[in-house]
Amino acid sequence: MAFATTDQQYYENSEHWGENSYVTLENIIDNIILGADDDSYFKHTKRFRASILGKLCIKNLNVDVKSKRMAISFVVSPSKIFPYPRYMTNWSRVSVLNKCDKLQVLMINNSPQIKDYLTDNEYLLQYDCNGEVQTGDDFNAEEGDCCIELTCTDRIHTECNCGCNDDSFTDSWVKDVQDGSYFEFSEDLVDQEVVIEFSSAGLDSMKDCDIKVHHCMEMTVRRFIEWNLLAGKHNISNQTVELYHDYYKKEKKKTESLLGDKITVNEILQSVTLRYN
User: Fold this and answer.
1) Which of 75-89, 196-210, 263-277 has the lowest mean pLDDT?
2) Contact 53, 225 (CB under 8 A)
3) Per residue in 147-183, is it b (16+ CB within 10 Å) or e — as a string?
4) What mean pLDDT comes out for the span 87-106?
């Protein structure tokens, strides 16, 4: 979304509020590429390379970039598994949408996958050619006693409750299978909608338009990109490269007091609905 160009656009659209204090990395790259004339060193600059250098600059400045908080929802498939959301660094909570349209937090199943060691007819372990125990498929088994479940009938209406049960998913669970990078769910969650809340990775996974730089540091980031773009060219003299390096150092010195305080990522809590079958 473009920046507001009038007071009316700014005040009447909440998406513009506060934008004047920041410029996006995308804007900085646009100023380098689109502002280059035919004789400019940066006329044929590739955007993806400028983006990499811009993110490298922000990292080198030791700026504290906040992780992006996200949430996704999906319906559990018969396979009972769902891969880690892309770019997920850590998850905070997994919930199921219950009958009352409320998010009910799922119990975490921390039991390990059971490895099936193979034996022969004499109950002796079988080994492969390397001397390692041969194994079958890993599997799960839930704890508990065998029991008969009595259901509600018209004849025994006084011994049970046939009304709405808000605790439908009390025994439901989710398991974080780190070896396979996926979540596994209990059988009763198949066809149920669940929500995973997680933090995404840092700058590498962010779009340039979502990385905001305080306007006071715009030139610092720009000069870093320009200096490193020139340093990678064979037809540019060392004198020119050093000149742009000096430009960068001067801009950085002007804004040293702002480092660690004025650059941030625009935190957005997104809800993306997926259907994974």
Assistant:
1) 263-277
2) yes
3) eeeeeeeeeeeeeeeeeeeeeebeebbbbebeeeeeb
4) 85
Q: Which amino acid is at 176?
A: D
Nearby residues of 78 by Cβ (< 8 Å), 6 or more positions away = 190
Both structure tokens of 55: 């993110």
Eight-class DSSP state of 41:
T
Strands (E) in 78-152, as ranges, are 81-83, 88-97, 103-105, 107-108
Q: Break the chain into its structural domains and give their ranges.
A: 21-66+203-270, 69-201
Task: Provide the 3-class DSSP secondary structure of residue 60.
Answer: helix
Average pLDDT over residues 91-116: 83
Q: Contact, 38 vs 170, CB < 8 A?
A: no
pLDDT, mean of residues 249-268: 59
pLDDT band at 257 (very low <50, low <70, confident <90, very high): low
The two tokens of residue 219 are: 């030139």
Instruction: Rank 126-140, 209-223, 262-276 by mean pLDDT and report only the highest.
Output: 209-223
- The C-alpha atoms of residue 227 and residue 56 are separated, in whole angstroms, by 13
Write the CA distances from 66 to 17, 70, 212, 272, integer angstroms: 20, 12, 11, 20
CB 178 within 8 A of CB 112: no
Beta strands in the chain (DSSP E): 22-24, 69-75, 81-83, 88-97, 103-105, 107-108, 173-177, 182-185, 193-200, 211-214, 263-265, 270-273
Cα(228)–Cα(233) distance, rounded to whole angstroms? Answer: 9
- Give all strands of the β-sheet with 22-24 in edge-to-edge order: 22-24, 211-214, 263-265
